[in-house]
Amino acid sequence: MTVTKVSQAGLSLTEAFSGVLQTNANFVDQVIFGPAVDGRAWNGLWNKASVFSSLMLATIEDEGSNTEINIWDLTQQSAGSPSTTVLATVDLSAAATPTAIAASMGYLIVSSEDGIAIIDPHSGAWAERTTGWPRTLSTSTTPALTNNDVEDVAAGLSNQPAYDPRTGGPMPTFGVAYGTGADIGSLLKDDGNVYDRSGTVTDGQGVVVITNAKIGLRHNSGGGRLEISDTVIENITADDWGFGDIGGSTTGEVPGLGFDDTVSAQGNLVAGGSDAGLTIISGIEQTLGNRANQGGSSVKITRAYNSGHMNTFIKGAWLANSVTVDRSVQANTLTQAGTVTEAAVESGAELKGYSGWSTSNYVNVASNSDWDVVGTGACSMSGWFKNSGTSSTEGLMNFTNTASTIRFLVALVTDGTLVAIDDGATAQVTIQTTETYEDSVWRKFDFVRVSSTERYLYIDGVLVGSSTSDAGSLSSSGNLPLSIGYATGISPLTPATNSTLSLCRFAAGATLIATAAQVRQMYEDEKGMFVASAECLLQSGSTDAVIDVDVDPLTNKVLVTQTDAITIFDGLVVDSKPTVNSGSSEKGKLWGDLRAEQNSANAYVTAPAVDQRQVNEMVRGLASDLPKGIDLSKAKAWLRLDGTGTIAIVSSYNIKSVTDVGTGIYDVFFAIPFKSDAGYLMVSAIGGTAADAVANSAATMTRHSLRMRVYARADGADTDVDPLMLVFFGELENE
Question: Does some domain include residue 2?
């Protein structure tokens, strides 16, 4: 163990500490949890003497015939070593083979061959919960699991969780993944219902995650893909909810290396691992929709390459530590003409850059359906370049026909500025930067076409130009080869003679490829790869297999565990490489600079040279400043209306009358007017009796009244609905 003591301006800070919590070869899983992680107290307490602390670690051990759960205080140390006195120990006598543990709001969920057990301290001592909700479940309980073989568990919160009188806070939702049976998993909602997701699990390993108020379950098909529910948890009210696929090795829209062995998530960031390597997904959306909404981009990382962010509907990811290989799942392998030079992007960096472009040294791939019939739809090109000085126009990346009548390209022109051209059947639309880029500095371009009438050009994540001119259709089936480093067969573009390129990608689909926020995030994540000595690959000396991942809830850094290496990624760059303690690595957890490690010999904790209690108090203070939501007690008017047929006010406050102006159009008059026409908030929840539930509304307000128009999602036609619920806030005339 190591001990470090630091001083600043005569002030002695709490020692850093590290050491073994317990020597034990039987650890199975662990979780960092507590009020500090949840961001709010349990029943008004941030700690309770001898029962719980603000920050804890729970470990589970396989003792042969039973499961032992130990709860450790991570805020306590003794002479520079972590406290080895447990807060509590709970034994599960019926669970002979534990598999996983997760936690939220003080509830620990532990999985085994006997179902799941819920353990909490909310009755004054840590104990298994067998009554009330949540509680221990199996195939013989009510509600019941569909299989007792539970391989993985998850815990989190929906957007609108039920109130939990035990904690005074939100009630968690849990997910379970099965190892066998007719279902791949179940959702244990905060209202006491259990909903199952059918599917055959053939390899005996389930993975489950709750992220951004959605549930994800790994499916055995699709190369270890993760099924993310296409709606948020509170909207799941039946078995077999809809889903979108991400991260599978054969999943085209949002590809990866599979989630076969492990997964972790915080917000819209998901990380997972398999024998093939690490997958990072960024941009999990809460909106309803198709698979494009499930993940904004994906990254594959092995010991050999880092793909960089691949946009949704990726069609090719090239120059990622290979001259020709496509790192997407489309297998659009490039052909190398001549010899392109490969070298580190900067001295000692793991990422490679490609140069030496000429009329005889370039890479291209034949036209195919992935991009030669984009039509009026969406596509994007992105990549990194540095240029030492242009003497003529240098083509960086393009697809084009030989006549240059249909083309989509990015190039540097003779004055050092960058141009992006969208040249469809209707017109050529060009966006050109004002800044020049001839200073040998690495920069990222993103040319995003949303449709034939909308496109954007970004440099280093910043919007530098846009256009809404109509370029028309980008279609010429069989006639649009894609080139990098040289626009073959067209003029006046010449090779990228003075440019070095890396991480060039192309995506195309029916919907928006990348938002401005996603472009900025991708740039921020990737830029650290282009500096001297930057590491961006898996750091194992022997394998690509990732056996555990953990996304830090404070920083979004990703802790990656391999048998012989522990690596922490910040964005797509290696932040640090903690030394593996005795034994083979198995699990790892992060909480800021505090790290818990589980290996084949012991449980190990290392904490930074700060006052961890102070850190926890800071988190508590931040939590107390969070928005408290809408306080309906302060509403100045509200209405529930049945707008179908002869309209009827079901209930109301400060509403004088409602007039039916026409189909889906209502005039609402206030009994006491507001002081002004603006400055008050209206919250509406609208439901419909038709299958196309109403999703949109438009309103015109004055201080005396509101005209509300309600229309259907499908066609925008005004539609009568029931119920129509409105809530108004502001200052009334008589106040």
Answer: no
